[in-house]
């Protein structure tokens, strides 16, 4: 039973999709406690992997970033300035993002970020740690840290540049401007934009299709793509070759290939093994 004030509400559907809902105040500010809950939950899921994970902020927004209150040691300072926390505390914030994001990326299943509204700063960075981003037409993305005089510390300078390219990433990070769902789609920041009222339906439909599909193939392709992005082409091709060899020992490969030969494409009933 989840605690009433738990910052992450976790449900598991009959189709074995985990729906993890952020719940922290008005804007789902990502405090170290919230990020710790994500990291802990992902570590649990890794022990008994679900068919897919949907990470959502609920129907209004995804998350408006790192908890800015955690940046402040004291509000006594000259003019508008405050006294910021010390370096150890700053690093612990970056490390909390890093642990949560890495735990999601390491899961052997698809992780979908369902973005209903704002995904700003750390909220955008957390969505970037998902494999796919499904956005409402009301969604807005951005890395507004520069407007606070700081920079993204939750992986934004790295994952955003890898996803949309360094030039577009520098535009968003240097200006702090927000992009709407349609611009985000155009730059490859999201995979799909859907009408707001259809967001959950579409996200679950996709997640369920992964959960009921050849799960080991999804997991192995995730591993090959993600690891391949981190190194040289040669190393990536090695990873792909290993994954390709491994997938042939799964039951679902035998089922999928056999079904194609008997009935043509797209007719297989996979076992998840
Ligand atoms: N951390 C902590 N609190 C935050 C927050 C954050 N990242 N973002 C918003 N809040 C708080 C606001 O201080 C406000 O608190 P209050 O009601 O106690 O005064 C509350 O959430 C609602 O925010 P508000 O700005 O009044 O709502 P809005 O609908 O006008 O705007 C946002 C929403 C998200 C666009 C706006 O709050 C915003 O730009 N937030 C900061 C985003 C950001 O810079 N993120 C990167 C952080 S490194």
Automatic annotation (TrEMBL):
InterPro entries found in the cross-reference section: ClpP/crotonase-like_dom_sf, Enoyl-CoA_hyd/isom_CS, Enoyl-CoA_hydra/iso, Enoyl-CoA_hydra_C
Keywords noted in UniProt: Isomerase, Lipid metabolism, Lyase
Molecular function via GO: 3-hydroxyacyl-CoA dehydratase activity; isomerase activity
Extent of the signal sequence: none
Listed CDD domains: crotonase-like
Record field: catalytic activity: a (3S)-3-hydroxyacyl-CoA = a (2E)-enoyl-CoA + H2O; a 4-saturated-(3S)-3-hydroxyacyl-CoA = a (3E)-enoyl-CoA + H2O
GO biological process assignments: fatty acid beta-oxidation
E.C. no: 4.2.1.17
Origin superkingdom: Bacteria
Presence of keyword Transferase: no
Family: Belongs to the enoyl-CoA hydratase/isomerase family.
PANTHER family in the cross-refs: (7AS)-7A-METHYL-1,5-DIOXO-2,3,5,6,7,7A-HEXAHYDRO-1H-INDENE-CARBOXYL-COA HYDROLASE, ENOYL-COA HYDRATASE-RELATED
Protein name: enoyl-CoA hydratase
UniProt source species: Candidatus Neomicrothrix parvicella RN1
Species lineage: Bacteria, Bacillati, Actinomycetota, Acidimicrobiia, Acidimicrobiales
């Amino acid at each position: 039973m989840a605690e009433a004030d738990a910052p992450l509400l976790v449900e598991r559907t009959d189709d074995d999709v985990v729906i993890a809902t952020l719940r922290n105040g008005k804007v789902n500010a990502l405090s170290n406690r919230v990020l710790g809950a994500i990291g802990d939950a992902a570590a649990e899921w890794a022990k008994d992997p679900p068919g897919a994970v949907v990470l959502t902020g609920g129907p209004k927004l995804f998350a408006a970033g790192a908890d800015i209150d955690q940046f402040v040691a004291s509000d006594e300072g000259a003019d508008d300035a405050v006294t910021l926390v010390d370096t150890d505390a700053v690093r612990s914030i970056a490390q909390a993002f890093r642990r949560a994001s890495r735990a999601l990326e390491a899961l052997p299943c698809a992780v979908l970020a369902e973005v209903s509204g704002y995904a700003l700063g750390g909220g955008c960075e957390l969505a970037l740690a998902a494999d796919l981003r499904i956005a409402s037409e009301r969604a807005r993305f951005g890395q507004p840290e520069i407007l606070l005089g700081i920079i993204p510390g939750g992986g934004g300078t790295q994952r955003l540049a890898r996803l949309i390219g360094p030039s577009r990433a520098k535009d968003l990070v240097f200006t702090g401007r927000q992009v709407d769902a349609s611009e985000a789609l155009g730059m490859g920041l999201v995979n799909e934009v859907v009408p707001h009222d259809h967001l959950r339906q579409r996200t679950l439909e996709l997640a369920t299709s992964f959960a009921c599909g050849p799960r080991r193939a999804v997991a192995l392709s995730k591993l090959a793509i993600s690891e391949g992005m981190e190194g040289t082409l040669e190393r990536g091709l090695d990873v792909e070759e290993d994954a390709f060899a491994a997938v042939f020992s799964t039951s679902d490969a035998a089922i999928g290939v056999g079904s194609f030969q008997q009935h043509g494409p797209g007719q297989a009933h996979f076992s998840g093994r």
